[in-house]
């Protein structure tokens, strides 16, 4: 598998696993846990998993001191994105929140274009438009109710934090550190935010049923350890903007679990939105290969030139 194909695959896995957040978090909310408690255990369980991965691969836990500040900043950004998203679940349906979160690829593309002179290709613009069209179809709730302003602002804050994280992972010197080490220390730094909030008065609520610990472990494994590991690696393989656009699979995953597990409606409008999002993902994966393929196809049918009249 070449580098680009590996990057696209990692980006797709990162988005799909991150979209499982509602699947494991909502039962914990129904059991009475609050976002800070859920996220504290989520990060607390994810860090040892990554530590075992580091040891299994023979990686060192040492990082240059010059990178500590950036790792701390990246951890706070990731934790802030998680916190605001999980808080938004208290104000709107998780599927809608996950859908609105997808504005972050647009933010990534704009940040890279404005701050780092990254060219927005016509294909990238088309992918963003198609994905936004799909998000627009998924936007309204089934009963047509108005979205909560507080919930919407929380999701936008989550999207902005995540967009800055993706850009920072691409342009900073953290590319010199193995992906697994970066993810381990980013989550370790992010844990400090939830420890600080609980120390400042947020209630720490423990699961009261044994099987809920399974939900916390799943949160630590799928949308945390696997997702952030794949995201960081995908960024290093294919860049920030393609990785962000592949995040279209996240709301698709959220809708799937909403229908299959929580009994949410699946309407033609939702189906149309998913089709547009999948089309956007297909186009961004095709990238320049699409233009090359069309060129080869056109060469199969050479243009017949007009014969010039020769003078006697």
Topology:
Layout: H1 3-18, H2 21-30, H3 35-56, H4 68-88, H5 94-100, H6 104-116, H7 122-139, H8 149-171, H9 179-199, H10 212-238, H11 240-245, H12 249-260, H13 268-286, H14 288-299
Helix pairs in contact: 1-10, 1-12, 2-10, 3-9, 3-10, 4-8, 4-9, 5-12, 6-8, 7-13, 9-10
Distance between the termini: 60 Å
* Main β-sheet description: none
The number of distinct helices, counting runs of at least 4 residues, comes to 14
The helix content, as a percent range, equals over 70%
How much is the average pLDDT?
82
What count of structural domains?
Answer: 1
Strand fraction band? under 5%
Spans of at least 5 consecutive residues whose pLDDT stays below 50 are none
Shape, please?
Answer: globular
Structural class, please? Answer: mainly alpha
How many β-strands, per DSSP? Answer: 0
Order of helices and strands: HHHHHHHHHHHHHH
Radius of gyration, rounded? 22 Å
Descriptive report:
- There is one protein chain.
- This protein starts with a helix and ends in a 13-residue tail after the last helix.
- It is mainly alpha-helical and 312 residues long.
- The protein has helices spanning 3-18, 21-30, 35-56, 68-88, 94-100, 104-116, 122-139, 149-171, 179-199, 212-238, 240-245, 249-260, 268-286, 288-299.
Keywords:
mainly alpha; 0% strand; 312 residues
Q: What is shown here, in short?
A:
The protein is mainly alpha-helical and 312 residues long.
């Amino acid at each position: 598998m070449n580098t680009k194909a590996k990057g696209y695959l990692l980006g797709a896995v990162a988005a799909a696993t991150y979209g499982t957040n509602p699947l494991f978090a909502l039962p914990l909310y129904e059991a009475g846990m609050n976002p800070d408690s859920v996220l504290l255990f989520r990060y607390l369980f994810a860090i040892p998993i990554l530590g075992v991965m580091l040891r299994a691969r023979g990686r060192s836990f040492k990082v240059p001191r010059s990178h500590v500040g950036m790792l701390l900043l990246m951890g706070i950004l990731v934790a802030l994105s998680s916190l605001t998203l999980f808080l938004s679940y208290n104000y709107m349906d998780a599927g809608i929140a996950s859908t609105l979160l997808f504005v972050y690829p647009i933010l990534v593309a704009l940040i890279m274009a404005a701050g780092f002179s990254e060219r927005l290709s016509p294909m990238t613009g088309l992918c963003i438009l198609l994905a936004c069209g799909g998000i627009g179809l998924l936007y309204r709730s089934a009963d047509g109710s108005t979205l909560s302003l507080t919930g919407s602002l929380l999701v936008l804050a989550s999207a902005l934090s995540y967009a800055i994280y993706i850009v920072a992972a691409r342009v900073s010197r953290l590319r010199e550190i193995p992906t697994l080490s970066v993810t381990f220390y980013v989550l370790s730094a992010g844990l400090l935010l939830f420890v600080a909030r609980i120390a400042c008065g947020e209630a720490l609520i423990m699961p009261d049923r044994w099987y809920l610990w399974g939900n916390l472990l799943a949160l630590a494994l799928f949308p945390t350890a696997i997702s952030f590991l794949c995201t960081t690696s995908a960024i290093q393989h294919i860049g920030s903007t393609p990785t962000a656009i592949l995040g279209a699979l996240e709301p698709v995953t959220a809708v799937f679990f909403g229908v299959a597990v929580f009994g949410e409606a699946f309407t033609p409008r939702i189906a149309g939105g998913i089709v547009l999002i999948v089309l956007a993902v297909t186009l961004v994966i095709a990238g320049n290969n699409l233009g090359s393929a069309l060129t080869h196809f056109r060469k199969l049918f050479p243009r017949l030139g007009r014969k010039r009249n020769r003078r006697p």
